[in-house]
Amino acid sequence: MPALVASDLDRTLIYSSAALALTMPDARAPRLLCVEVHESKPLSYMTETAARLLTDLGDAAVFVPTTTRTRKQYQRINLPGPEPTYAICANGGHLLVDGVSDPDWHAQVTARLADQCAPLSEVQEHLLRAADPVWVRKHRVADDLFAYLVVERELLNEDWVKELAVWAENRGWTVSLQGRKIYAVPKPLTKSAAMREVARRTGADLTLAAGDSLLDADLLLAADQGWRPGHGELADTGWTAPALRALPERGVLAGERILRELLAAAGSGRFA
Predict the structure, then answer these.
(1) Fewest beta carbons within 10 Å, which of 24, 89, 110, 225?
(2) Largest Cα–Cα distance of the chain, in whole Å?
(3) Contact 225, 208 (CB under 8 A)
């Protein structure tokens, strides 16, 4: 059976202008391909080499984009390569099959959340009350599953984020700071559960995963082999696991390296 590759997107395979980390001389910068446009503006990129690798990966494995983005946010991304049959959105809250959310899977997830953690309304109310308008730019709810804030990082008091994490922990939620966004996500809402469901449906017996944030940790632990870049929450905290490869590359070149390793592992049917 082909390998299953479940990879995070933002700051793992695709990068905003601010996250590219083009630290090399301008003349040596890689050629970039725009893979997302929002409100008529280019938003996310990968290198042209990464685009070719992703196309090859789509032919060699069951490639499953695995993101915390909502369905709407995911569907404005135009990835190179074969159209994925499966995609995981809203941190596992939606399993897309040929672009359409599987209603049975979503019903299972919402039932699990209702049973195991505090309601979204309680968390949303706390964020509205406790966050300082000096550094908050937007309050958002994603697919009626979790909440996040868009903030000005230079003004943010990161001790507040730690206090929020403790508050959330006691209610069955987790907190993740990624770039300019602070996510509050129910603990039972996981990418790993959705990845296991896709593996069950496809019969894949080798699972490979990549990600950069705290919300990817469960995915990396659940896979047979995982990769993380040299940037992001996991790198910043030195997070590791027995089957994890921590790569040194940062920025858009990390995405290229991750795809190269995923393709090698998927193509050989074993770890690269």
Answers:
(1) 24
(2) 55
(3) yes
